[in-house]
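Q: I'm teaching a short session on how sequence maps to structure, and I want students to see two examples side by side rather than one. Could you give me a first protein with its sequence written out and its structure tokens following it? Keep the formatting plain so it prints cleanly on a handout.
A: Of course. Example one:
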Amino acid sequence: MKRDSRVRTGLTILWALSPLLTAGLASPIIFTHVALRLRRWAHWLAAAGYLALESAVFATVEADPGTAGDVIFSIGAVVSVLGGTAHAFAVRGRVFARRDAVAFDQAQGEIRRRRELRARAHEIARRDPQTALEMRIGRPDLPRGFDDGGLVDVNHAPAHVLAQGLGITLEQAERLVEARERCDGFVSAEEAAALTGLPPSLTPRLAEYGVYLP
């Protein structure tokens, strides 16, 4: 396993050195590969840039010393060779990242994205509860076109939705339903937890995933 890892590392280093080993000829190819792997427009632009540099180098290869063409040739060659090599080493880790590491990064990114969606939906509910009701924020059981990041309307959603969305038992969710009917709805996670006797450890979840609309 260690030998395979060393071979893999050696091959990726050779990949990054290819602009240097080919006098810059590999730079456009390398960054086309980078763009295909990472799928970002910046890398497509880099590939196009290196291709343009190589075209300029070939066009000025026979330029007389001291002429503008000679300057273009020199600059193009240096950037394509040394710049391409340095650039390849800079992105090597991302291009050849192991699948589990990529999956972990994607999962983290999705968690952050969902958290931001919840924060935005919470802000809508705070500023304009009526709009939040019309958008059906916190009601995954109803048809809607707005992604609220997984919020649950604690004052209106049925028990099974509360259980699933808040990560609590159905019995705890039914206690929430009974208590909200008695007090005509909760105003906060703290009140909901206090009036239902739920464990204090659940209050942060009630605050993050719950929305309390009138």
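Q: Perfect. Now a second example for contrast.
A: Example two:
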Amino acid sequence: REEGRGLVEGQASENQVSYVITIEERSYTLHLNQQVFLPNNFRVYTYSQGGSVHSDFPHIKRDCFYKGYIAGFPNSVVTLSTCSGLRGILQLKNVSYGIEPLDSTPGFQHLVYQIWNENIESLLFVENDSVIWSEGMTRKLDTGIKYDYMGSDKDVVTEKIVQLIGFVNSMFTPLNMIIVLSSLEFWADSNKIPTTGEADELLQRFLQWKNIHLILRPHDI
């Protein structure tokens, strides 16, 4: 990937924010709207060594996730987290960029790099006519995520999953859908279901486990 430092300037109003990012001596104006996909009762579940379940409310900012577009570039998609610097993806028709803060440097400096993975080309673009629903109707989708965090810090993993849901929401915006992250559960000692096999098989095993173990959690949506 190609890397470089990007100059970032911004202005904000309620629920909206704009940034001007300079990449390779060219300025891009980002217009963003706030995303809301974390419920107030969002919880993180962990297990004790004895197998009992504990839950807590993580200290996660809920008002620093945005999605939008790049001015002058039709069908462009931007999804950013502003919780601590800027972190996210800028996707144009033929090129995509990642952006993340430079923690080791003073000031509001960021690393901007071109994403070469061909899969990103179709990641955030969704045709408007893929699904036909009534205009103005918003749908919510309940989803589960399997993430091998390999002993990483729980707070770091939580932040990464929240950012991932922000990316996914940008994919479903043309379909008028909101992906809500209702809770996270960490299986630190062992998996509660077998994780081998095809994706469909894994999904069915997870749904069976969820129906048995999460049915008594009324805040789960």
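Q: What should students look for in example two?
A: Point them to this: The chain has two helices and 13 strands. Also worth mentioning: Helices lie at 154-172, 199-213.
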